[in-house]
Amino acid sequence: MSAEVIYGNVLAEELRSEMKQEVQELSKQNVYPKLVVVIIGEDPASMSYVKGKQKASAKVGMDSDLIELPESTSQDELLALIEKLNGDDTVHGILVQLPVPDHIDDQAVIEAIDPKKDVDGFHPSNVGKMLTGQDTFYPCTPYGILVMLKRANIELEGAHVVIVGRSNLVGKPVGQLLLNENATVTHCHSRTKDLRSHTKKADILIVAAGKADLLSGEDVKEGAVVIDVGVNRVDGKLTGDVEFDSAKEVASYITPVPKGVGPMTITMLLHNTIKAAKQIHNVQ
Ligand SMILES: Nc1nc(=O)c2c([nH]1)NC[C@@H]1CN(c3ccc(C(=O)N[C@@H](CCC(=O)O)C(=O)O)cc3)C=[N+]21
Question: What Gene Ontology molecular function terms does this protein carry (predicted)?
């Protein structure tokens, strides 16, 4: 078998043109969704994602501000800025690019953001809502994966989903979202014994471990769906957690890196910002 490749960038483009229409409609009601991205320090990889976010916002006609702070910014200064953005009625989405420098407590930052403006979906109150199956801001990467699977008409109910990686950003929340869709979910991680024995059983294999080429075709069941969430820079090039060429021969569907999950992450961020603006201004 040679898998069908699910191009996230193509789907992202489609969804963004729908969003552009929606942003235009909202402007007639004097609602102008605005995202503020805060970045601390000058990590080049982080800068490149942030630029992607700015470009995507501009494409859907959305306002987006970038606040660049020096590496030396204190936690109190950052929390004061977040307070200010929480109170600014023109701002609907606040994203602090992670990771933050070591002298700043990331959980304190996440919890300082008003849950109504938490377009990353990382605030414990929004995480709790997701866990209990309530409508809220879902974390962008998990949400993007869900939308990709749905658009490809992949059956989720009763499917055995195996997730490699248990971060709060991807591994844990994607399992929760798919559990809410009635999938059977297995979480694997760095301490899992005999990883392959688990991945080989997956109908849908989601790999978010952050290790280049951690898995290959030999770890994949014939006909499985492979979602590669890895963003690894190897010799300056972006690669995933799955060896694409060998996995493609075994899988039924596979996402590439780049042009897979990444562009969907940004798209769901824009979706969440529009949703936040509509809720804050109480419009449909
Ligand atoms: N608070 C917070 N929220 C995040 O959502 C967040 C974050 N911090 N920190 C960093 C990670 C990483 N991330 C990516 C988003 C898009 C691409 C993306 O679009 N990648 C393109 C290629 C980009 C390139 O070539 O550099 C692609 O896969 O095709 C990648 C990575 C969001 N993150």
Answer: methenyltetrahydrofolate cyclohydrolase activity; methylenetetrahydrofolate dehydrogenase (NADP+) activity
Q: Which of 34, 118, 120, 248 is catalytic?
A: 120
DSSP state, 180?
H
| Tokens encoding 145 | 């994966």
Give nearest CA residue, ligand 1 atom 10: 98
235 is catalytic: no
Residue ranges of the chain with per-residue pLDDT less than 50 = none
Query: Is residue 231 part of an annotated ligand binding site?
Result: yes
Q: Is residue 221 annotated as part of the catalytic site, yes or no?
A: no
CATH code, residues 29-114:
3.40.50.10860
Q: Whose CA is nearest to atom 11 of ligand 1?
A: 98
- Assigned superfamily of 140-262: NAD(P)-binding Rossmann-like Domain (3.40.50.720)
DSSP of 229-241, one letter per residue? ---EEETTEEE-S
- At 12-56, the pLDDT tens digits run 999 999 999 999 999 999 999 999 999 999 877 778 888 888 899
Q: What is the pLDDT of residue 60?
A: 96
CA distance 140 to 273: 11
Q: Is 228 one of the catalytic residues?
A: no
